[in-house]
Known about the structure:
Elements: E1 4-8, H1 12-23, E2 27-32, E3 43-46, H2 48-57, H3 60-66, E4 68-69, E5 73-76, E6 82-85, H4 88-95, E7 100-103, H5 104-112, E8 120-122, E9 125-130, E10 137-142, E11 150-154, E12 156-159, H6 166-171, E13 179-189, E14 200-204, E15 208-214, E16 220-227, H7 237-244, H8 252-257, E17 265-271, E18 280-281, E19 284-286, H9 289-292, H10 301-318, H11 322-350, H12 357-369, H13 374-383
Parallel strand pairs: 1-2, 1-12, 2-8, 5-14, 12-19
Antiparallel strand pairs: 3-7, 4-7, 5-6, 9-10, 10-11, 13-16, 13-17, 14-15, 15-16, 18-19
Helix pairs in contact: 1-5, 1-10, 2-3, 2-10, 4-13, 10-11
Amino acid sequence: MGNTAVVVGAGIGGLAAAVGLRRVGWEVRVVERAPVLADAGAGISLAANGIRALDALGVGAAVRAAARGQYTGGTRTPGGSWLARMDGAALERALGTPIVGIPRAALHRLLRGALPPGVLTVGAEVTGLDRSAPDRVRVLLNGAPDGTGASMDADLVVAADGVHSRVRGLLLPSHPGPAYSGSTVFRAITDRPLDLRTDFEITWGRGAEFGHIAFADGRAEWHAVLNAPAGVRHADPLAELRGRFAGWHEPVARLLAATRPDAVLHHDVHELATPLPSFVTGRVALLGDAAHAMTPNLGQGACQALEDAVVLAAALADAADTGTALAAYDAQRRPRATSVATAARRAGRMGQRLSSPPAVALRNAALRMAPSGMAVRMILRHADWTAPRLPTPEAGERQSPVE
């Protein structure tokens, strides 16, 4: 089979796909519409399935070294009482690793560092796909480095261009696309280290959630999720959050106080509430949020994208032809990713999305009465995944960060 691929999108899923495809012998180009890789973003939690996928890609050890294990924490009420504790040590015994927290920018850099120079092109937006040839795809681009239109021919296109995927829209014009979940999220990383008692926390109020992830350097990522109409924005988001979460237990106020106003990111949460009929159309494979954008309530979005990348690479390494490989990728990934997305949506409805006082009280009482190991079992349900093995790159293959 041919072995040239174009990956559309240089996020976590796209970079992971490029790393995986190169490990199985494919020539890869990555195109990213953003003109500059600003390494913006807050933090991310990676469960065992995400770490195992990174191990298969050859970057797991580097990610562990840059991350902080989430051994202590859990879920609380705004007054500070515990609803459920997280036992990171039990997870590590069961899976070989706890959940870890890492800045997204650090994960991006490590994935880029597993690619040689010249693989990534920035400032190039996909405007169309020519799929008239049965075994090739021509990717039409706007914003080539010389300022003119351009195109790339490939045996395979991997669409990893996010929840609002342009490629998905070209392939499946009748699909309704992403839907607003009803929640909006604020995120930031503190400007300085903080003395935090736990590695990870989530606090549920009425129609609101506040959480944090502690990093290895002492800083922390925090997020605030609110029930709100789509498109609502604030002149001073930090001041808005200080008012909204006034009176909530520490370290909420301390986290907000340690944040620069210009560091706050604000995004509405969209999901693919209508599952795709397939993750594959011809020689184009959808991956990550482009295929199965989900709400963040299980912390599985990036982990599922990493799983996609490894399974796609393994399928291409094992199959005799690209069509067979892509069919295997769809058969393996679509049921699992769709199931996780459904579970994430349900978790949100029972968590942050609840706003009725009786419903919140009933949920809190149920969590307090639950067996102590239930939280670990819930995480194991999605995190206990075994990655397929990928070939080891040939000795001496050059790998360095892409600027």
